Amino acid sequence: MRIDIVTIFPQFFDILDLSLLGKARAQGIIDLHVHDLRDATHDRHRAVDDTPYGGGAGMVMKPEPWGETLDAIFEASPVDSPLVVFPSPAGTTFTQPYAHELSRESHIIFGCGRYEGIDQRVFEYAASRARVQLVSLGDYVLNGGEVAVMAMIEAFGRLIPGVVGNPESLVEESHEQGLLEYPSYTKPAVWRDREVPSILLSGHHANIAAWRHEQQVERTQRVRPDLYAAWANEQ
Ligand code: ADE
After folding, report:
1. Pocket test for ligand 1, best of 9, 88, 93 (most atoms within 8 A of CB)
2. What are the DSSP calls for 103-171, one per residue?
3. Which one, 28, 97, 100, 124, has the greatest CB density within 10 A?
């Protein structure tokens, strides 16, 4: 999969050299290109923002550097219609099913906004050349899209075949079956007077599976009544 990121803080993404995603890059599963938006400015100050038409607080990202950067990426795209994702608190909410959708794309372009946002015409122009989605991590405001892009790449990157060594480990996670995951334990069997639930030491696989499922249901009902209601509705 090819991933392009447009940002005014390219160093932010240096950490994608680490861990599972770093390995996936080294293996060629992920082909990452990070672009400094300021490289597409042509003034002495390398300005990427300006005051908003109509007045109001803050600054807006200018369309020209975006257009020039996106054009170069579209030109290099291995597909006819890549997916352009702009992280934004005004977007649709990022979810595990959406992470699965992203993991099946061939080319994703992330556009990281800063300040009060990007000139609206950039979204319209991008939509004339590609598929465009505005995506929010949740109902809170970040200073810019960079952290949101990191979170999204972490979420969908591990779903790309070959990135996580044992794909079975993905199946029982929180949000995969509409429930939160069950609690996990490892050795020692007693730690600071706290015992591992005895059923996990029983070796009885069916009983262990039933106990884990009960724990998932109980935890989801207690912590996320919204998820529980949706799950119970499906049963
Ligand atoms: N940029 C600023 N806030 C954001 C959010 N909540 N989700 C995604 N991108 C953002």
Report:
1. 88
2. HT-SEEEEE---TT-B-HHHHHHHHHHSEEEEEESSSS--SSSHHHHHHHHHHHHTTSTTSSS-GGGGT
3. 100
